[in-house]
Amino acid sequence: MNKIAFLFFISFTLFTSCQKQTFKNIDVEEVLGTDYFPLHIGDWWVYQVDSIIYDLEKNKVLHDTIHTTVKLIITDTFSLGDDIQAFKVERFQRAFDSAPWKALDSWWAAKDEVGAWSNEGNLLFQKLTFPVKIGRRWEGNAHIGEHVSLMVHEDILEQVFDGWTYRYVALIQPEKIGEVSYDDVITVREVDNTLDAPPTIDYQKAYSKYAKGVGLVYKKWILLHDIDTSPDPSIPFADRAEEGFFLEQTLLEYHVQ
User: Fold this and answer.
1) Is 4 exposed, middle or buried (0-12, 13-18, 19+ CB in 10 A)?
2) Domain CATH number, residue 35
3) Which residues contact 102 (CB under 8 A, 6 or more apart)?
């Protein structure tokens, strides 16, 4: 069983891009939608990350709230072969605005005309598929493999990435996120098992928003587990969950060439 520490997911984002190309006066980025995932060396993004960890300890559910700021900086490139260029993304973290940035780790990202990928904590996610089209679906976690578990504090969420089907649910929408207004935002539903019926044992909801020419501007993940095999459905899941986490990530500022 693979176990991935929650630290890797405190800021769960990456970005990719390439320069615009034209062919017979057709803007390839415009047609495919690759400019929702921009990347150049020197680009950076700063996020506010808020999370709540659910932890069952001595028959009592403890809610550990974490507030932090995370910065991603594109620092280098390397080849993945087949003319695909990958970009190194270094991550930094600080607890408050006046604190110095502390290095966390580095990830990498890449894209082509098919899709955009990010390798985060040695897990390869396909964040977007091209061309961007409403209702289009893809298996964004297909490269992770089955039965990967996520370690949250001292608990383990089993097979947490299994069965996710990503889908574009909103395109070209003006939206205000945090204190910033964006003219063109797309929304990706990565998983949401609350749509058909109220969940009983596992609650999974994950959405990400990307702004044109900016990259990821917002993400919200709620992954909770109730170990009670006969839960009371009248109690809201967030009130009876015993394991898991809530994560919200909002773009504060950025520089994209």
Assistant:
1) buried
2) 2.40.360
3) 92, 93, 94
Distance CA 62, CA 246 (A): 13
User: Cis omega before residue 131 (within 30°)?
Assistant: yes
Q: CA 81 to CA 10: how far, in whole Å? A: 30
173, 95, 125, 139: which is closest to 15 by C-alpha? 125
Distance CA 223, CA 194 (A): 12
Q: Are 160 and 152 in contact (CB under 8 A)?
A: no
Nearest to 29 by CA among 39, 15, 18, 43: 18
* Residue-number span of the structural domain to which 160 is assigned: 2-255
Cα dihedral across residues 132, 202, 1, 55: positive or negative: positive
Which class for 98: exposed (0-12), middle (13-18), buried (19 or more C-beta within 10 A)? exposed
pTM of the model: 0.85
Task: Split the chain (257 residues) into runs of 10 and give each run's mean pLDDT.
Answer: 49 38 51 92 97 73 85 97 92 94 96 94 94 97 82 72 95 96 98 89 94 98 82 80 90 97
E strand or H helix at 238: helix 237-240
Number of domains in the chain: 1
How far apart CA 186 and CA 166 sit, in angstroms, is 13
Cα–Cα distance measured from residue 225 to residue 156, given in angstroms and rounded to the nearest whole number: 10
CA distance 195 to 205: 10
Pick from 69, 6, 73, 12: nearest CA to 39: 73
Three-state SS string over 31-54 comes to HHCHHHCCCCCCCEEEEEEEEEEE
